[in-house]
Specification:
By secondary structure, the protein is α+β, with helices and mostly antiparallel strands. It folds into two domains: 143 residues, no CATH class; 112 residues, no CATH class. Helices cover 41% and strands 15% of the residues. The strands form four sheets. A four-stranded antiparallel sheet has the order 1-8-5-6, with helices on one face. A four-stranded mixed sheet has the order 2-4-3-7. A two-stranded antiparallel ribbon has the order 9-10. Helix 3 packs across helix 6.
Length: 289
């Protein structure tokens, strides 16, 4: 995974974070994401709060001034500002909140600048490129399995009197299972459903598919335990109908509702499996956290 932090200029340095767009600006201006208010929960749409002027000339001038100030005061280390990775800002990405008691992530293909409250995971940044699936990875990150792992391995730091946090180095330690193509497509499909349903605030169907994604991820990490308990899910999901970005909202919703009705049928093995998955000891332990 290609992981990056956000910009480190912050709001205290004038000329970068602004409340209103200046139409006369010659510099590129992005919508700006900051803190928990820009990502309120797993899979939630992102909410920009302000704007960010991507001004490398201003950045260089400020860093030069800090260097000169350090030299004048005989300080070896000068303050250094970082404006962030433009390729990460410009390309589709997963954004993961740094401060959260669980792994909290969402996806966007919009251009955003974000502060250090977030880590981005993308297929393209200044380090290079890769072809791993963002939607599949998002489904894994938001699962009960990886939150359980993060808490019990100490990757999410929970210090008294402080907000729980996951650091960049610890985020890189999360075990992302490399499943087969069929299973990846299943999880991608459901994640796409959920991201769309979040935008239209369809909670009933959205919650069902989130629970279903989690069941699929549990099976990826504990295949033998799920199989021996007769709670397999993935083998019953080979004929899903995906939604695509070029579909209308009505077309997307029609497909999702038809799949919801099919999979939520009391006689469908998928519904039986996800509703009784907690009878598997490993699942009970994970979901209790």
């Amino acid at each position: 995974m290609l992981i990056r932090t956000g910009e480190s200029v912050g709001v205290k340095e004038s000329g970068f974070v602004i409340d209103e767009v200046n139409s006369n600006s010659e510099k590129e201006i992005y919508e700006y994401l900051e803190g928990g208010k820009s990502l309120k929960g797993q899979y939630e749409p992102l909410n920009p709060t302000r704007y960010f002027v991507y001004d490398v000339d201003l950045l260089n001038a400020k860093n030069q001034a800090y260097r000169e100030e350090a030299d004048e005061n005989n300080r070896k280390n000068a303050k250094v500002l970082g404006i962030g990775d433009k390729l990460a800002f410009d390309n589709p990405k997963i954004l993961v909140r740094q401060s959260s008691p669980i792994i909290c992530a969402s996806y966007t293909d919009e251009k955003y600048v974000y502060n250090r409250s977030y880590y981005s995971i993308s297929q393209v940044n200044s380090s290079g490129s890769t072809n791993f699936s963002l939607l599949y990875t998002l489904g894994l990150l938001n699962s009960s399995v990886l939150t359980f792992y993060s808490i019990h391995k100490g990757l999410i730091k929970q210090e008294k009197g402080k907000q729980p946090q996951i650091r960049l180095g610890d985020l890189k330690l999360l075990p992302i299972v490399n499943s087969n193509k069929e299973h990846k497509l299943i999880i991608e499909c459901f994640v796409h459903y959920v991201l769309f349903l979040k935008t239209i605030k369809n909670d009933i169907e959205c919650n069902f598919f989130i629970h279903l994604i989690d069941g699929c991820v549990v099976e990826l990490y504990f295949p033998e335990e799920i199989k021996s308990a007769g709670k397999e899910i993935l083998k019953h999901l080979g004929d899903l109908k995906p939604i695509t970005d070029d579909m209308s909202e009505e077309e997307k919703l029609a497909i999702i509702q038809s799949e919801f009705e099919r999979l939520y049928d009391p006689n469908h093995p998928v519904r039986f499996a996800i509703e009784t998955l907690d009878s598997v000891e490993e699942v009970r332990i994970i979901r209790r956290r």
